[in-house]
Amino acid sequence: MTGLEQLGRYWPQLSLNAVIDILVVAFLIYQFLSLIRGTRAAPMLLGVSTLVIAFYAAHLLGLRTVDWLVTNVLPYAIFSLIVVFQAEIRHALARLGRKLAFSRMQSANGLESYDDIVLAANLFSQNQTGALMVIEREIGLRTYIESGVPLDAQLSYDLLATIFRPSAPLHDGAVIIRKDRIAAAACFLPLSMNPLLSTQLGTRHRAGIGITEETDAISVVVSEETGAISLAVGGNVDRDITPERLRERLAELLRRYVPQPSMPTSIANTSADIREHDGKDESATNADERATLAGDGREEQA
């Protein structure tokens, strides 16, 4: 009897339902591991797996006290795991809901234009003004809106520039944008605890990333130290992007075409051009005066 025949004797007869069942379980395990990869839940899962293996080994070795302890603690341990992994479970359910509501989200996001956000981010970048703007999508941000100062004002470039002026009372915190309106300012957001984030990222960037880990929102962050523009979505961040790249990414995420906005010229550049122009005029005037004086001198000599 060959090895294949011996394997066939012990291999159970697999039905179509059994194959589908195995594939579904494998898919769920893969999605779960992909979800926690790179998060703080990964080392926690490793620790839980180590404990399970240790308790199973204690059962095989006949350690009755440990076996009794595991038998009585296991029902409560399930609730403990739910508490420990609550953020990942909430994130998974939110992602499932976004996929189910894909078509509705696509039609809803095609109604608003966010050119004002791009223009404001460009201004903040030039002036090195710290700013955090959050765009609400399918998952509501009511909890975070209530933590700030409600505005419910029309979204505009001028209003964003006024809110994030360093001397303004609302410049600390985040601005939450719902459709074409600014829902609230000076809002508090959850900080990201992802250990893989760069240590160069401050509280403003971690808050912008944290809200995208909890919801499907989009965060636009401008650094106060460097003026660099960053875009965070889904817990990931694109750092030091140009206003044109920001406009393209918003168009991709909101699934609509955003016309190219005309970026305002930097005040510093404008001042330099004015000084250069005035310098040229002054030089030309001095040259004319010197030529006139030289002509008068020649006439006196004659």
Explained architecture:
The chain starts with a helix and ends with a helix. 23% of the residues are buried. The protein has 2 domains: 3-100, no CATH class; 113-254, DNA integrity scanning protein, DisA, N-terminal domain (YojJ-like (1, 3-Layer(aba) Sandwich), CATH 3.40.1700. A 7-stranded mixed sheet has the order 2-4-3-1-5-6-7, sandwiched between helices. It is built from 12 helices and 7 strands. 58% of the residues lie in helices and 13% in strands. It has 302 residues and is α+β, with helices and mostly antiparallel strands. Helix 3 runs antiparallel to helix 4, helix 7 packs parallel to helix 9 (157-163) and helix 7 (115-127) runs antiparallel to helix 11.
Which structural traits does this protein have?
single chain, 302 residues, alpha+beta, YojJ-like (1, 7-stranded mixed β-sheet, elongated, disordered C terminus
Topology of this protein?
Elements: H1 3-10, H2 16-36, H3 41-60, H4 64-84, H5 86-100, H6 102-108, H7 115-127, E1 131-135, H8 142-145, E2 149-154, H9 157-163, E3 174-178, E4 181-187, H10 203-214, E5 218-222, E6 229-233, E7 236-241, H11 243-254, H12 267-301
Parallel strand pairs: 1-3
Antiparallel strand pairs: 1-5, 2-4, 3-4, 5-6, 6-7
Helix pairs in contact: 3-4, 7-9, 7-11
